[in-house]
Amino acid sequence: MPATAGRGRLTQGQVDVALHTGFGTYQKVESGALVPSARYLRQVAELFGLTPFDLQVAHASLTGTEPVPQPSDRPDSSWVQVLQGQSQMALVLDCSGSIIAVNAAAESLFNGEAPANLWHWILSPAGRQCLCAWEEEWAPYVLAEIRRAQARHPDDPGLETLRTELGCYDYLQGMEPARSGFTAVSRTMHHPRWGTGNVQYLAAQIEGSSGQMVTLPFTSA
């Protein structure tokens, strides 16, 4: 991280004191002699007031990888406006599949009352009734998404709650996750208002957050 990037008037030693690290730690990071941990970089970013984008740039420069967004890194509220401008069903989820925002088109899928968690809904009896070929085309891929989320955020309480709730469904016991999460493959759905049609589960990570925008473009059969 360049010495001028965010440190301002703090000396290298003052950064060490503020972060409760050994003397010379920050100097080694700035000089490239020490590859910092993701946790250390997040502490530095908080101390310097760096934006999520700044943190990504610093993380990539110093470690060669991008930081894994934390569950607390929720998407900016402006994404609600983006959702409302979509004609197709669209939602913003956090890292556990909980619904942060939903547009009017997506609300129609749930008869006007969106559930608390999209992944839970897909795996619930309500989802089984709505999603055709549920056991082959939907459930294993949601389980794969959940497994991937748990690997990235092992301490997230939302994922722990989801796992507990899903444990109540006997029909999920023994079901194996797919080898990958959702792709752009077309799947069949019986929409309560629009009838039977084909839908894709298109997910995009929202930059600088642990959330993702999910769009469900629907085409009548």
A few lines on this structure:
The chain is of the alpha+beta class. It has helices at 12-19, 25-31, 38-48, 52-63, 78-84, 104-109, 118-123, 125-130, 134-152, 157-166; strands at 89-93, 99-102, 187-191, 195-199, 202-205, 212-216, 218-220.
Computed CA radius of gyration, to the nearest angstrom: 21 Å
Number of domains: 2
Order of strands across the widest beta sheet?
A: 2-1-6-5
Strand content: 5-15%
The CATH architecture term of the largest domain is 2-Layer Sandwich
* Tertiary shape: elongated
Number of strands: 7
Question: What's the average pLDDT?
Answer: 86
Please provide a written account of the structure.
With 221 residues, the protein is α+β, with helices and mostly antiparallel strands. It has two domains: 12-63, no CATH class; 78-220, Beta-Lactamase (2-Layer Sandwich), CATH 3.30.450. 42% of the residues lie in helices and 14% in strands. It contains ten helices and seven strands. Strands 2-1-6-5 form a four-stranded antiparallel sheet. Strands 3-4-7 form a three-stranded antiparallel sheet, with no helix packed on it. A hairpin with a 6-residue loop joins strand 5 and strand 6 (212-216). Helix 3 packs across helix 4 (52-63). The radius of gyration is 21 Å and the shape is elongated. It starts with 11 loop residues before the first helix and ends with a strand. The model has no long low-confidence stretch (mean pLDDT 86).
